[in-house]
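To: structure desk
From: M.T.
Subject: fold request, one chain
Message: Could you run this one when you get a chance? Sequence is below, nothing fancy, just the single chain.
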Amino acid sequence: MQPRYDVAIIGGGMAGLIAGLYLQSAGRRTVILEHGRQVGGNMSGIWRDGFYFDCGDQSMESFGILFPILDELGLYHPEDWIDIKWRMVTPDCEVPLGTYDQVRADFKRCFPASAVELDAWFDHLLPMVNWYPTFMDAHARTITGRGLVRTKAHVKLLSSIVLQAATLKGFLTRSASELAERIFKTDPRLRFLFGDYGYPNLPLMVAATFWYTFIYDYHYPRAGIQGLMNMLADAYRQRGGEIRLRSTVNMLKTSGKMVKGLVTSRDEYIEAAQFINTGNPKRLVAEMLDDPTAWDYRDRQEILKNEVTVGNTAAYLGLDMSTAELLPRLKDHHTVYWRSYETARDIYDPDLHRKGWSMISATSLFLPALAPEGKNSIVVQIYTPYAWMDDWGTHAHDPFTRTPEYKALKEKVLADIIADTEYVIPGIAGRVVYRELATPRSLARWTLNADGNPMGWSLDAYSSKMARRHMRIRTPLTNLRNAGHYALCPGGVITAAMTGRMAGRALAR
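Reply: Done. Structure tokens follow.
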């Protein structure tokens, strides 16, 4: 008998939906099995008392990848998106990320004694910043072009990579921390700001990409990110695809190196010819395989031991504050506020949550439909490890464990976040009419991501084997492919979209 489905896709986030859309366009029979109550995964959003909040990703870059993929699927409409801006705030400076030259000049104004060193830093990144538009344009045409246009785009893309090979090698083999240590000799604040980013030993290539995209290439859907995910899901269903929500995949049934079917939390057994996993590979190799020996032992151990990115805690705040009041304070969609020049890593430090960065995202500031009239929604994210304070006072690694200590700690952290945000938004404490806190444990419950991580594998170029390996689309099981945050390092929206496209197109042939 033929399996009921050609492809079963585990996970209904960006990668799963993109893969499903390509497969449906090719006439395949597919089903998406999603753990949550709605599609989205790391890109979920929620409505509370008329306020909209993004739960994970707060915006996204295109980078010559996301928009062309949506365009290829017939789902990109420029009028559905707004371009957004960032700014960086520290106790010593405020720098809007408007243009590369302006950012350089503003940092030199804030730190005049380090002007020469700042020039050295920005000059070092400039070849990559100048190259990215060429790369992005050529890459986009390899997706959306046809015939000779696509062939020429491939040639242009490969030629530009060859011409840039020496520079690329230097950026791929050095970390931002190393370069900052070498350049910033006089001011440790700059050594931290430009070398750490909250991610120690971040590959210099990723750091350069951050600077380019923050300044020139960040976007937000007018319907909110959940609105985008719902649009993708609706298009997938309209093309004949099936989505099953609250259907957690608990087991893969294997025979040798083949997956024969899967078992869901609803005790359903689903057979398919091919499978795509967009979820947590740690859970896959540790809990979901009926025969763990079907997966190579050494690779299983690497997956289980490899670190993931550190989790975020998010405060969802509904403000009784009009746009006319809030705009002069926030100014841009994103404000990265470095409360202190450090990335706190001591999981036993009770004040860890008040150190390092916080990111304030003005969800409704430029899109008033995302909040009640005359009010605004903001999300404040901070860096907090999953294991902080004895697993957030639960004394258990299981994210579904919740205790009175956990609830009390959440209340304290939420109050402290609001108090710290006063620096950027004076008077906010008296204007909060809705408040809620999500911890890394919350994201782990929603998505089953290891330790509630927001971006897959650790970005530490020296401790993470996955960061050095870059791409893992194929698996030791011949009819199981990876896609999503864990399949391509660094994780993120564009890599989820790219790997979803790669997996979908590969199985559509």
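Reply (cont.): The chain has a mean pLDDT of 94. Let me know if you need anything else for the meeting.
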